[in-house]
Amino acid sequence: MQTEGRLGKAIGRPLALAIALLTGGCDIAPAPEYMVTYAAKGTRSGMSITVSTPNGTEQHQVGSHYVSPPYTFRAGQHGYISAQNLGERGTITVMLVYSRPNLKAVKLESTSTGGASIATLSWRVGDERPPSGFPQ
Q: 33-124: which CATH topology?
C-alpha cells in the first residue's frame, strides 16, 4: 500500500503540471485574425455558391450577385469560394477579400467563362504568398 501511494504522488504532480500547461497555464499568443469576405458576380441565370466559414461550409443559390457577411478567420484556417454558372453561357467571377487591422485589404479573383463553368478560389488564411496560378 505504501508503494502505491508514493507512485500516485510521483505521477500526479507531473500530470497536473502538464494539464495546467495545456489548458492555459502558459501565455501562448493566439493565431492572428483575418477578416474574410467573399463575393461573386455572374450571369442573370444565376449561380450556385459554396463558401467555407470558420464554422463549416455554406451553400447558396443566388442570382447574378453575391456578397457574404465578413467572417473572422484565424491564421491556418481554410478560406474557399466556388461558384458554378447555372446558365448555358456567360462569365462568372469569384472574389476573396481579406484584411487585418492596420493593413491594406487584399483581393484575390478568379474568372471562368461558359455554360456550367466553375470559378474557384482557395486560400490558407495567413499565407501571404499568392495562390498558385496567380502572378507573383
A: Immunoglobulin-like (2.60.40)
